Amino acid sequence: MTTDQNLMPYAKLAGFGLVVVANRFGYNSGFSQELHDRLIEGLEAAIARILMVMALERRFLTGEDEFAEYQMQGENEIFGRFTINLLDELEIDFDTHEYRINGGDWINVLTADEGGVEIRLPTLVRLTDEEFGRLFRTSPWELASPFMRCALLDAAIPS
Questions:
Q1: pLDDT one-digit tens code per residue, 2-27
Q2: Could you tell me the pLDDT band of residue 1, with boundaries at 50, 70 and 90?
Q3: Which of 38, 50, 59, 126 would staple 68 via disulfide (CB 3.0–4.6 Å)?
Q4: How far apart are CA 142 and CA 135, in angstroms?
């Protein structure tokens, strides 16, 4: 995408971020505030990715950096897979076969019996509109573009 094409998602993300910040003050429960904080943090990370792509594009077009084009392709791929986990953050260490949720204690996933060794890692599950519940249907969520609705639906819970 060119810089001009990157300005539209940048403006939408920044505008949506302002709506989320304003909406955060309307909730008294710690759970709702934590969800809003995570969404704000995720939006800031997405904006940072877009700004990085724009900077790499400028460096490529001016000829300052011969590797900028490859970095830009990588950043675009990363941004294409970008999700915002609202409910739980799952960290998996594939070397030690352990995982942890929300920065808690590491949990080993190896089990062994006479049948052999089994590795059962939890996965993140995409929530539907129905499962996402009331939070998704509040007015700021309805303002979201289809891109943001997709990002919001990538909220994660371990299965």
A1: 667 778 888 888 888 888 888 888 87
A2: low
A3: 59
A4: 10
Interacting residues of 83 by C-beta distance below 8 A, sequence separation 6+: 151, 154, 156
123 vs 125: CA distance, rounded Å: 6
User: Which helix or strand (DSSP H or E) is residue 10 part of?
Assistant: helix 3-24
Enumerate residues 6+ apart whose C-beta is below 8 A from 45: 82, 84
| Region of 63 on the Ramachandran plot (φ > 0 left; ψ -120 to 50 alpha; else beta) | left
8 Å CB contact between 9 and 142: no
Question: Does residue 62 or residue 148 have the better pLDDT?
Answer: 62
Structure tokens at 11: 């403006």
CA distance 108 to 98: 4
Domain map of the chain by residue range?
Answer: 3-88+124-152
Q: What would the pLDDT profile of 76-112 be if each residue is shown by its tens digit?
A: 888 877 777 777 778 888 888 888 888 889 888 877 7
- For 25, phi then psi, to 5°, come to -70, -15
